[in-house]
Structure to design on (259 residues):
């Protein structure tokens, strides 16, 4: 059941189940907490499960000057503190994994695990400023078309069902233009901090990545030494929790059981 808390604006979340461990799900850009429903229904039988709408997404509010990854992490940390979440395993998809890095720095004493879903595939490799500027210019020029192109060429595959592809495209295209452009700027800026912030995580980091785009495992090993485990998913796109939930849930539960 959807709930709300006032933390300098409304934060919308789902809080279900009970257990010794708390699984906290964070979605990626332009999506919402509903992408985790297949996981919530399975995991709430054994764990406390919290899924949050990031600021400016779903039913959560956002202020114009609080669109950074750091801002998101601070607000979600405050939410988890208000909910007295203990023994937390963070599960972040896409930029939700960046937000997890910030939550870890704010709420470290209560976090026992971190699972990044289809992210950090080329850690330490930021886009050149010229490429970032080009992307932002395209978004300013034709916001819907630029986002549709991005979805079709980066987030889905030829095997993705038409219904799921349309769902993802609609979420992207119907997002607020001003917010969306500013969020993308902040995400590109944060990419320069990812490597250093990952190295500050003392619990083992699990990377649950889809193989439609390869992951640079050697880069992860260079940054994290032996403090990580890589798990590959075959036959899905950027959204394995929706496209192949049975396989995704099985792999995620195996990771949770190791923590």
């Amino acid at each position: 059941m959807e709930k709300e808390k006032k933390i300098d604006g409304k934060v919308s979340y789902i809080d279900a189940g009970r257990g010794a461990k708390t699984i906290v799900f964070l979605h990626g850009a332009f999506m919402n907490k509903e992408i985790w429903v297949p996981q919530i229904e399975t995991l709430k039988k054994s764990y406390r499960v919290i899924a949050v709408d990031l600021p400016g997404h779903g039913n959560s509010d956002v202020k114009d000057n609080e669109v950074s990854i750091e801002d998101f992490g601070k607000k979600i940390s405050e939410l988890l503190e208000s909910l007295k979440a203990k023994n937390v395993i963070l599960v972040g998809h896409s930029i939700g994994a960046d937000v997890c890095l910030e939550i870890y720095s704010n709420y470290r004493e209560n976090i026992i695990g971190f699972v990044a879903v289809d992210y950090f595939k080329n850690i330490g490799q930021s886009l050149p400023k010229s490429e970032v500027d080009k992307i932002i210019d395209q978004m300013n020029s034709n916001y819907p078309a630029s986002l549709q192109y991005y979805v079709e060429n980066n987030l889905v595959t030829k095997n993705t069902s038409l219904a799921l592809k349309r769902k993802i495209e609609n979420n992207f295209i119907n997002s607020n233009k001003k917010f969306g452009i500013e969020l993308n700027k902040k995400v590109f800026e944060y990419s320069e901090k990812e490597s250093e912030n990952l190295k500050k995580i003392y619990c083992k980091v699990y990377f649950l990545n889809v193989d439609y785009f390869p992951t640079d495992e050697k880069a992860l090993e260079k940054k994290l030494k032996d403090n990580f485990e890589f798990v590959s998913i075959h036959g899905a796109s950027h959204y394995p929790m929706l496209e192949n939930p049975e396989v995704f849930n099985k792999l995620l539960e195996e990771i949770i059981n190791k923590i």
About this structure: The radius of gyration is 17 Å. The longest strand covers residues 10-16. The chain has a mean pLDDT of 95. The CA atoms of residues 73 and 198 lie 14 Å apart.
